[in-house]
Design brief:
With 211 residues, this protein is an alpha/beta fold. The model has no long low-confidence stretch (mean pLDDT 87). Keywords: DNA-binding, Phosphoprotein. This is Two-component transcriptional response regulator, LuxR family. Pfam families: GerE, Response_reg. InterPro entries: CheY-like_superfamily (IPR011006), NreC/VraR/RcsB-like_REC (IPR058245), Sig_transdc_resp-reg_C-effctor (IPR016032), Sig_transdc_resp-reg_receiver (IPR001789), Tscrpt_reg_LuxR_C (IPR000792), WalR-like (IPR039420).
Length: 211
């Protein structure tokens, strides 16, 4: 039975090249592709692939936020992050969002093929570089760092501080209410906050916004 794959990357040449490489394997089937995080969320909801492969740096909705949204709708969704990003906050954010695998784009073909098959079977796999980073991080416990907010997330956060709800934020920024909701969820996760008030308080303390 084929493994149905979905690819999300904002660089067409990377995405198309990846699709071509994956097509060399008889048990892989690429069922869809997306240019950005929002498109990926919508298409994955409709296509229900076995494994989602996604980059982290994407427009409209980054990979971590997109993955959170996908898994909120499909808790059993399997995901492999395939990215050039190897910063600690990106790695931890992706794993916390539910990624079962994390490979850097310099990985060999066979390493990529193996990761997909392992994840499709319900396993997990990290590239050696990423595993080493996580082990070093665990060996030196510290307060989780605040992840960098995107410009859009900063705009949403400022409106949160004004007490606006998702619908009002969406109207102010000219985006969909669903998109505003995704941004709010991502902000809470990045600031390690359990609610909006706590997120605003943390943001003020760290100088991210002013009231």
């Amino acid at each position: 039975m084929n493994i149905r794959l979905f690819l999300a990357d904002d660089h067409p040449i990377v995405r198309e090249g990846l699709a071509a490489i994956l097509s060399t394997q008889s048990d892989f089937e690429v069922v869809g592709q997306a240019n950005d995080g929002m498109e990926a969320v919508d298409m994955v909801s409709a296509l229900r692939p076995d494994v989602v492969m996604l980059d982290l740096a994407m427009p409209k909705l980054d990979g971590v936020a997109a993955l959170r949204a996908m898994r909120a709708e499909q808790p059993g969704l399997k995901a492999l992050v395939f990215t050039a990003s190897e910063t600690d906050d990106r790695i931890i954010g992706a794993i916390q969002a539910g990624a079962q695998g994390y490979l850097l784009k310099g990985a060999a073909r066979e390493e990529l093929f193996n990761a997909i098959r392992v994840i499709a079977r319900g396993g997990s796999l990290l590239s050696p570089e990423i595993a080493t980073r996580l082990m070093e991080r665990m060996a030196s416990p510290q307060t989780p760092p605040t992840e960098t907010l995107t410009q859009r997330e900063q705009e949403v956060l400022q409106l949160l501080a004004q007490g606006l709800q998702n619908k009002e934020i969406a109207a102010q920024l000219g985006i969909r209410e669903r998109t505003a909701k995704f941004h709010v969820s991502t902000i809470l996760a990045k600031l390690h906050a359990t609610n909006r008030v706590e997120a605003v308080r943390t943001a003020v303390q760290e100088g991210l916004i002013t009231l």
